[in-house]
Amino acid sequence: MKGLWSLTSLILLFHAHAISQNRVMTYPITPKEQISDNYFGAIVPDPYRWLEFDTSAQTKEWVTEQNDLSKKYLSKLLNKYPFRDQLRFNADIDFGSLRKMGKYYVDFIINETQKTPSLYLKKNINATSDLAIDPADYKNISSDIVSITGYSISKDNKYIAFGLSYNGSDWNEIRVKSVYPFRNLADRLKWVKFSSIEWKSDGFFYCTYDSVNQSQVLTAINQHPKIFYHKLGTPQNEDRLIFRDTTSATIQFSVMDNERYLVVNYAFYYAGKRYHKVSFIDFRTDDHTITDLILSGNEYKVIGMYNGKFLVASNYPALNGALSLVSPDSPDQLEEFIPEHKEILKQTTIVGDKIICIYLDDIDNIAVTYDKDGKAVNKIVYPVGSSVEGFEGAPDDPTTLFYYHSFLYPPIAYMYDVNTLSVKLIQRTEVMYDLANFEVRKVYYYSKDGQKIPMIIAGKKGFKLTGDNPTILYGYGGYGISLTPFFSTGFINHLQNGGLIALPSLRGGGEYGEKWHEEGMLSNKQNVFDDFIAAAEYLKKEHYTSKEKLAIMGGSNGGLLIGAVLNQRPDLCQVAVTQMGLFDMLRYQKYTIGYDWKKEFGTSEDSAQFQYLYKYSPLHNVRNVAYPATLIITADHDDRVVPMHSYKFIATLQEKNESNLPVLLLTEKNYGHQAGSLTTTAAMYAFIYEQLGVKPVSLNPL
Question: Is the pTM of this model over 0.70?
Fold first, then answer.
């Protein structure tokens, strides 16, 4: 591939498309450059490449102009639609954060004066919560938004180590506090990313990357993850390097068997294929030799130690998932323990002397408990249209917590005794509405190629198929992630206002196992877009909604989905919203952790993969057609899907859109990939309702 771009010979061409093509508003003028790349003989223009330089004065000025325009428009809608007040009614809902670690219970609580939750500890399940960590105490400057990204309590229950993110960045610092009394230690570790915290003796393991130039801290490629061991009370530059890899982008690790083993899971991309490895270090050996647990090329994950062996979950060759045992003394020999079932293995944990597996059965959740011989001794079946999480624990824990939730209710916490197999209600959040007023339906439709797809639809009880229901169709479809219904204050607000929420199980996810994932990745990615389009057509054909009452929404990989669908079917809906979307599929791998996604999408550096990427890449397929009203939301500290994706995409949309409907960019300040402000959420729904012609009802607390 030969680039045709010379930084020293840029010619800026100014366009005034906003005035001539769009009558609803005048967009900021976006300069164009005469830049092209040569991909295996295909010349691909990239006129807005300058927007990739997020720290340049020109880009910052352009973002400010776009935000000024969007905020002026959206502020009028916020006055018209009182969504912020409505959302605040549900803002104090506990999202099921209560967890047991060591001898303590950990919870996250947020009040109306905070932007991120604080961490609290309880000495027992019935005790009063004690404030342990207030992230606001760790601000460097007053405008910082600091959030807790992870935590781990030492084995002796004396210390808690925790990760802090500043303004939403994936870059973290690790701090340490003593527990009862709560007191800050001097330990401060920097350049931490995508890391767990695993204690051993008087210190812990963590993952870091090389530091980068401060002007590129949110965009530079992050390579060669390394695991270090930090001993409490020592400076970071004395930390001991334990493990490094030059082929992968991220690694997962855990300490097992009374701190004897460090087990490392990592995947890498080579010659167009994805490979997976599991290695371990036995700290009882003199040289701490790194041993490969299983042959490379298969999908394995070590869950923990069981019956003196590693318990391993795999989805190959058992595409629905199976569990095996592997002896550290015979690391390449798998012993089948719990075989593959027709249900999809979603999660496995070890609690006490039991193994608890969460399965998906036609996207419904089932939790099965197995004994030490691999025999099923209990099964919990959850309601249709709900999701399950939790069941975390340790080999000496007699109990564990689990949660289930849906579009209709926030997580409900239960205590599960693995010895008596009994279940006890622990926490049920009081909400501002009557659950009996809503219902969930599961339907099926057929995609373009005849594949049968399930979809969950939520709405007010007894809603009619009139074709007039304001409907949000939400999608993701990627990375083998099983996207089942989840609680959202925005969604429940929409349901309270008489709307519908629809969630199809798109290929590319893991709802029906690894085969389902493979049918929506790499060269099969078009299936995901076809599945989503077919879901919209089904909703309209069956009179759930109409084109004029339909909004489509997705974030991150789901933003890619929405962007591709917008280009392929601009007539599909009335309004589209993306959050932190991925739009430039030819250059995504050049930023931060993007190159790790090659195994999911492929890369423009491969001639065959370039062909299908170029065919659907949202940025490169914007046409001179009438687009629906579109709101593109990104964040200035998103260093996972960097904001250049949204910048370049919206500039192209504003240039080519031939409708009178607004296409707007909103860039959140001091936020990252995972979070957004209540004001932005309210503005997003106000934007949707303005386009759908919906007047919100007056919502009051019960």
Answer: yes
